[in-house]
Design brief:
This protein is of the alpha/beta class. 41% of the residues lie in helices and 17% in strands.
Length: 193
């Protein structure tokens, strides 16, 4: 992976480990020459992951919609800041700039972005590795719910298995680097991918 989009919270959460892991992930990206693509904010763990990258000489590209580009929100020291007209254009640009997807703890927006990219993978629109850093077991209950959806026949096990999960940054990045994509659904044409 050369460029990974990270979806995460604009808050820091209740455990300092969330911010610590975000900064450490940024440091790991910089040391492994992985470009960060993210929401462009200086606040929350979004800001921590970008600061981790930048503090160690890495590249961080922020993608932020026009209505959120306020001085108190966007990170002033990014390698590049891309302004989009809306949230939909933002997600598309993030996708275009990345070859991997990673989710850290966050709220509704984080989940929405993650699940859209996961759905695109399920449909065969991309074959990027999709990782979840499960800091402090933050996503364990969500993952249990997704397994319940498999058990109840609403999600295929093959699609659930696309989600790579670990509590260790190194182990998660290793899983993502070694990811073998699932076959593209037969009902999609090559032109749609």
């Amino acid at each position: 992976m050369n460029s990974v989009v990270v979806f995460c919270g604009s808050s820091e959460g209740t455990h300092e480990q969330y911010a610590n892991d975000a900064f450490a992930l940024g440091e790991k990206f910089a040391k492994n020459d992985i470009q960060l693509v993210y929401g462009g904010a200086k606040i929350g763990i979004m800001g921590k992951v970008a600061s981790g990258v930048l503090a160690h000489g890495g590249k961080a590209i922020g993608v932020i919609p026009e209505f959120l580009k306020r001085e108190e929100v966007f990170h002033p020291n990014l390698t590049e800041l891309i302004i989009t007209k809306d949230m939909h254009e933002r997600k598309l640009k993030m996708h275009e700039l990345s070859d991997g997807i990673l989710m850290l703890p966050g709220g509704y927006g984080t989940l929405e972005e993650f699940f859209e990219m996961l759905t695109w993978a399920q449909l065969g629109l991309h074959q990027y590795p999709i990782g979840v850093l499960n800091t402090n077991n933050f996503y364990s209950e969500l993952l249990n719910m997704l397994q319940h959806m498999v058990n109840q026949g609403f999600v295929k096990q093959l699609n659930f298995d696309m989600i790579l999960v670990d509590e260790s940054i190194d182990d998660l990045l290793n899983k993502m680097n070694n990811y073998k994509p699932i076959p593209v659904p037969k009902w999609l044409t090559k032109e749609q991918i």
